[in-house]
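Your task
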Amino acid sequence: MRVKYYLKSSGRSPVEDFLQTVSQEIRFDFFDAINQLAEGKNLSMPLNRNLSSIHHGLHELRFKDRAGPVRIFYVIVSRDAIYILHAFQKKTQQLPKKELAVVLNRIKEVKK
């Protein structure tokens, strides 16, 4: 599967920018997970959470280090494309509505 990053109109990837701010451990774990997804492997909890109840094909990668939990969202658009949409440092138990709104808006953009 091809892995693509959501790009803003400026051409920058907010997820790649975010990854520059997290620990090397999380970056390593993220790229390992993405490589496995690209090879067609199915990832499960606790690393990967299926969020199809929110939107078809939506998933959340879950990482944690000393700074706390990190969530990175991706959507499987077709059998050959995965879009990495959004990432943030989690501070509350539930998924903040603001973060979910960003994810859903980006899904609309990549599916155009």
About this structure: The chain has one domain: 2-110.
